[in-house]
Every structure is written in structure tokens, then in C-alpha cells.
Amino acid sequence: MLLAPMLARVAYLFGPAEYFALYLLAFCTLGGMASNNQAKAALASCIGLGIAMIGVDNSSGLPRLTGGNLHMMDGIDFLVAIVGLFAIAEVFFFIESHGKASTLGVKLEKVTIPWRDIAHTKWTMLRASGVGFVAGILPGAGASLGSFLAYMSEKSIAGKSGGFGTGVAKGVAAPEAGNNAAAGGALVPMLTLGVPGSGTTAVLLALLMTLNITPGPTLFTDRPEVVWGLIASLLIANVVLLLMNVPMVKIFVRILTVPAWVLLPGVTMISFVGIYSLSGSYFDLLLMIAFGVLGYVLRKLDIPTVPVILGILLGGNMENALRRAMVLSDGDPMFLFSTPIAIGLWVAAIAGFVAPMFLRGLLKKPQAVTD
User: Fold this and answer.
1) SS3 category, 106
2) For 63, phi and psi rounded to 5 degrees?
3) Residues 184, 234: contact at Cβ < 8 Å?
4) How many CA atoms lie within 13 A of 120 on its CB side?
5) Average pLDDT over the chain, rounded to an integer
6) For 338, how many CA atoms within 13 A lie in the half-sphere containing its CB?
7) pTM (whole model) above 0.85
């Protein structure tokens, strides 16, 4: 509530060069954190950008990568891609992993609130919330970075005598608090700059765009009811989530006992009905299945799918920003580095892509010493 309006005012200083660097920052940070292999994350981003190029070129009016198919002229609907990559691909993977006659049996013991642990870790949760929120503001970083940084910072504060790695309450509270705080922080770049802060906000951005609502600095003046309504809903949702989840967790977990031969057709049916209700086109259903196969193959190859979605969502805007920058500079590529803001975003993008490799190395060293 405090930072979003401030950042929206700063966003008015952004030109095409700054926006291009900002989109690049989103790809680099999310790609760096979404996979243990930077090359695979970069490949996933390129796949998403390539899919975003499908359709009629806005400048020349010529079709690109359509294969002569009229259904492809309008481009790829990102909701079709999201449902295919996440829902249909998950159905394929679940069938392979568990078999059609399997069930997920879960035995749940008595659920109680550990008030003593909550009181013992209150300062840990406050510190981790601050770290997670800052991490969530970074475009593309999301909850994964928030959890990681919160855990590492709390571990360094506790020292060797903190017992981290043995199941202490602080080791559980820190990443969870950081994860939850990053979820709210990820909304800041999404609402003010139109750049998703995480995979979840990428889906939220897609939903807003289907309602002809374009997040950005003008959203706070043109559609303030959307911004403040969303923020208010988050405040209410946290309270409702607590009131519902604790007493009803035994009911929610029973869905895991549903046989797969009942659960999978239900998920598939909802996916098909949802996509068909959007456009009424059978081609979108075929396209959704194709994205499901693509998502299944990517998962088998351990290639993250979130950068693919990010590429589909931001590819068109990134291309437009690059074209406007080239028009303003008469084709000079150095225009992309012409302002301090653009240079800072380029440096942050490179650091966001390279830093995870060093952070993962630091995380593995203590494990190696313990082994």
C-alpha cells in the first residue's frame, strides 16, 4: 500500500529503453531462480518469446510463424498456454507417475496450533517477512527467492549454535514467512510496471489483460478501484485463509484420497470447458492439448515452464519497447544504455541471472561439509 503508489510515480520516468531493460530483468531473475540450470531457463524464455511472435506483425501487418493457419493470425491466447502447460501437462505427468488406478492416501493426525513455537519465532517471522517482501518486489524473482534469502539470512543470524538443518522451528518459520511476504511484494511490480513479480502474478496479469485492464503507472489514476480493491481483498483474504484453513484442513486434505481415475477426468473436463467458454473455438482446445504435450516434454527434460509463460505474456511488450527505442535512436543500439535507470536495470539483470549460481554453491557447501 505504501510502496506501490511511490513506484508508480517513478515509473513515469521510464521510456522504451528502460522498459526493455526491465523486461529483460524479469526474464533474468525469474529464469535464474526457476531452474538449477541457467541454460535451460534461458531456453525456456526463448521458447516463450518465440511463441509470442506468432501472429500478425503490428508494424508491417504481415503474418509471422502462422504456417498459413487463419486461427493463428491473432496470436496465441496466453490463457490457453497457461492451462495447457500447467493443468494438462500435470495430468499427463500424473498418469505416468501414479497410474490410472492409484490413490493418494493421506493420514492426518490431530491438528493443533503450536502457540509456543509461534511465540518463540515471532522475531524470526518479522525479519523474514521484511526480507521476503523486498525479494518479492524484484521483477520475476517471486516467492522462491524470498524463501531462500529469508532462510539464509536467519541462518547467518542464528550461527552454528542455531541448530539449522536439524528441524528447528526457526528454520521452518523463516522460509515460510519469506514466501508469504514475497507473494504480496510481487504485486508491486505487476501493478505499477506491468511486469509480473512471480509465476502467480503472471497468471493474474493474464487475467487482468483479458478484462482489458493493463497494469502500469496509469492504472492508479485510470482504474483506482481495481488497485485498491485488489489490495483490500488481500487483507481480507489473509484473515479468511486463517479462519478457514485451520479448522477445515481435514476436509481439504480428503481430496488427496480421491482415486486418480475420478480426479484426472474432472481436472481435464474443467480445463476444456473453461477454455471453450472463452472463445468457443475447437482450435483452442487442440492448441491447449499441444501446450500440454509441450509442458510434459519440458518437465521431463527438467526445463522450467514459468519462463515460457513469462515470454508469452511479455514478449509482445518487450518487442514494442525495443522497436520504439530503435525508432527514437535511428537504429543505434547504444540507446538501450543511454540513461542511469536503464544501465542500473541492465546490471541488475546480469546479476540476477548469474547470482543464483553462486548462491546455490554457497548452499551446497555446508551440506558437503556435513556429509
Assistant:
1) coil
2) -75, 145
3) yes
4) 10
5) 77
6) 16
7) no
